[in-house]
Amino acid sequence: MVGIPTGAKTGFFALDVDVKEGKTGDINLAALEAEHVQLPQTAIIQTATGGFHYLFRHVDGLTTATGGLPEHIDIRAQGGYIIGAGSTFPDGRRYKYLGGTSAEFIAAIGSIAEPPAWLIDVIRTPRHGAVSGSFAAMPRNDSVSAAEVEELLSYISPDCAYQDWLSVLMAVHEELGDGGLAIADAWSAGGSKYRKGDVFRRWKTFKPGGGVGMGSLTVLARDGGADLSGIARRHRGCERDGTRSIDAEKLSAFVARGLAKNQHDASARVGTLPSSRSEAAQASGSSEPANDNTPPAPSKFSIFDWPSSRFVGEPPVVKELVEGTIPQAVPGMIAAMGDTGKSYAALELHRRVSFGSSAFDSPIFGGRVLATGTSVLVTSEDDSGEVHRRLAALDRHEHRLTDGQKLLVVPLPSAGGPRAFWREDKKLGLIETDDWKRLCDELVSIEDLRLVTLDPLASFAHVQINEDPAAGAFVCASLGALAAQTRASVLVLHHMKKVAKPIESLADAREAIRGSTALVDGLRLAYALWPAEEKRGRAICKDLGVEYAANKVVFGGVVKANGAARRIVSTYVRNDFGLLVDRTVGIGASGLPQDDLLEQLVAAIAAAAEAGQPLTKTGATGLFENRERLGEGLSQLSRHKIEGLAQRLVDSQRVVKCLAGGTTPKWLDVPTGRFAMGLGEFRKGMARG
Predict the structure, then answer these.
(1) Residue 517 lies in a domain
(2) 117 and 8 within one domain
(3) In this structure, are residues 165 and 198 in contact, taking their beta carbons and an 8 Å threshold?
């Protein structure tokens, strides 16, 4: 698949006509041509799903905004991409140039036609609705009066779902500005769940251009029985229905001409076109609103709106809170056995996020802290005295005196007592509590929020998270929604159960996390901490020259991640005031179990291949010859040991040998890596012997 950027860089844009699964882009294009004049001859690509890309010379100012184009017709201009002719899907479907071969397509790009003036006018005209005549809310092209907003609100119940309630407030703010606060508060006061001050607290977090406006308000009012056209006539002297008015007889003629034209064109260009297309069933009607405590139901989607051709160009960069282990904007968990120091370590993570890190700081939770901003930690176990003592030990430069608002620590035992954020109601089932909603409202108002931690999860979840998968999934969904809304990492601290045998691997550690599998599976990340057994702990302390004590040495690592993560076991040793300090660097390989060495070797092989510098098992590019690239622990092993570990990985197919420019498979990569898939490219200057 080859993606070609559109716009000024390549000198053309594409008119994208979609016909897959009953879509009527070809018919709507025929209607446009009948209304104006026929499109000029130009280069055309037939897509793998039967649609067409009409290419025209670039016009300054065009982006991917469709303007007044009817439904199922888009443009790909500045900032967009198309798939090049000759690209092929695995099932054999191809993108075809209708004027010849792929090579002829490339030659034709320089001689594509100028777009007709009428087409540019349509693209630059704001859309007023689809040719199909379906309902479309009136765009905000003229002023909206307070009286009109009030009449629309009279059709919306203030006891609606929380997300709808929030959308109403945002819409009123967008349309009326600060003058709408009294109207919004009066509307909300008519509900049974009204609390004085709730509207104002949300209102002050809104900003103009938030994306929710009159369209959302009219849809909710329509669902409540409002006559939108009548309301619009009374207040504006216009119809609320903004769809294009087209005579039914004329529309039928357009459709007939469109079908005939496309049948003829398809026969001439590509041989055949199906004589009939399947019509997608479209069910209409509104569902029962969810209760106020239930997270909003997922919006409808169509699989055909998400072809892989949307995912071209440079992919978005994954932003990380902690390098290699904790991404930003995801819900996650730090799980640990009792007396391992997880709460103290979490507070240190918050300190670094809020006040910054030193170049001399050791890694924390497996990596360096990359993001800085405001962080919020809510603890139900430590009182203000304990928090004070810990901050005094951690924040030795007293940044909290000048930047105290960057690190917010709430010790619930000293702030009114524990709170339930999730509980089970006899009538409503699993619900989010008002305390949780108030907390979320305050968190959303923090512009540079980077990290939120709840310690421990069990104190806030008054539901059966350890036994009931539905409860675990409900809590995880709630945490995920907060992470998505704030773009912060939202972590919960959780407990691990005692195990009969010592934990020997990351897989063992994951199995030891308390609760149903839904709890771990529902979060994007899980990092585990567990104490070393006495024998290994003593050996590590001896290596480091420190005195051994029970729970002095703790291991930690990522046991679940939805994306790429550094899956190695780190070794932590408590310092003089009890903080876990990463001492992995410098500890001999004897301190690492066999499974951890294998995990580390897999990570090193994958990283080398991804960087375009793959390794081989032996030789000049072999693992032992390049052992300094393998990291501490592995780099100290003998040739026999390193190559033996590599052979174990190959035998278990966790690592594969790949071809890359030669005749013998020898380059090592993980099965999902670029070299394993035949897509790897050597970095310039890389030895290939």
Answers:
(1) yes
(2) yes
(3) no
Residues 190 and 91 occupy one common structural domain: no
Residue 288's Cβ-side half-sphere holds a number of Cα atoms within 13 Å equal to: 4
Q: Is residue 263 part of a domain?
A: no
Q: What is the count of structural domains for the chain?
A: 4
Q: Which residues constitute the domain of residue 499?
A: 320-587
Domain C-terminal end among 236, 258, 274? 236
146-153 and 181-188 helices cross at what angle (nearest 10)? 20
Q: What is the pLDDT of residues 464-491, one digit of tens each?
A: 888 888 888 899 999 999 999 899 999 9
pLDDT at 522: 87
Residues of the chain with pLDDT under 50: 1, 128-142, 238-297, 589-591
Q: Please say which residue of 563, 587, 611 terminates a domain.
A: 587
Strands 81-83 and 3-5: antiparallel
Task: Compute CA distances 111 → 285, 392, 526, whole Å.
Answer: 49, 71, 55
pLDDT at 33: 80
CA angle at 110 for the pair 309 and 265, rounded to the nearest 5°: 65
pLDDT at 243: 33
100 and 151 belong to one structural domain: no
Question: What pLDDT, on a 0 to 100 scale, did the predictor assign at position 111?
Answer: 74
Q: Find all residues with CB under 8 Å of 646, minimum gap 6, and list them.
A: 601, 605, 617, 623, 655, 668
Looking up residue 92, the CATH number of its domain turns out to be 3.30.2250
| H or E element in which residue 17 lies | strand 12-17
Torsion, CA 82, CA 85, CA 88, CA 93, rounded to 10: 100
| Residue 664's CATH number | 1.10.10
- Residues 97, 44: Cα–Cα separation, whole Å: 6
572: buried, middle or exposed (CB in 10 Å: 19+, 13-18, 0-12)? buried
Beta-strand relationship, 3-5 and 570-574: unpaired
pLDDT in tens, 51-85: 888 999 888 877 766 677 888 888 888 777 777 77
> What are the strands of the beta sheet with 525-531, ordered from one edge?
407-411, 374-379, 449-455, 489-495, 331-336, 525-531, 553-561, 570-574, 580-582
In this prediction, residue 365 carries a pLDDT of: 95
Looking at the domain assignment, is residue 260 inside a domain? no
* Stated length of the chain: 689
The per-residue pLDDT for range 599-619, each reduced to its tens digit, is: 888 888 988 888 888 999 998
* CA 571 – CA 627 distance, rounded (Å): 21
Element (H, E) at 267: helix 248-270
CA distances 73 to 24, 116, 123, 131, 138, Å, are: 9, 16, 10, 11, 20
pLDDT at 34: 76
Tell me: do 530 and 653 sit in the same domain. Answer: no
Residues 426 and 517 in one domain: yes
Sequence-ordered alpha helix ranges (H) in 398-500: 434-444, 457-460, 469-486
Helix axes 146-153, 228-236, angle to 10 degrees: 160
Same domain, 581 and 600: no
Residues 599, 567 share a domain: no
- Same domain membership, residue 622 and residue 602: yes
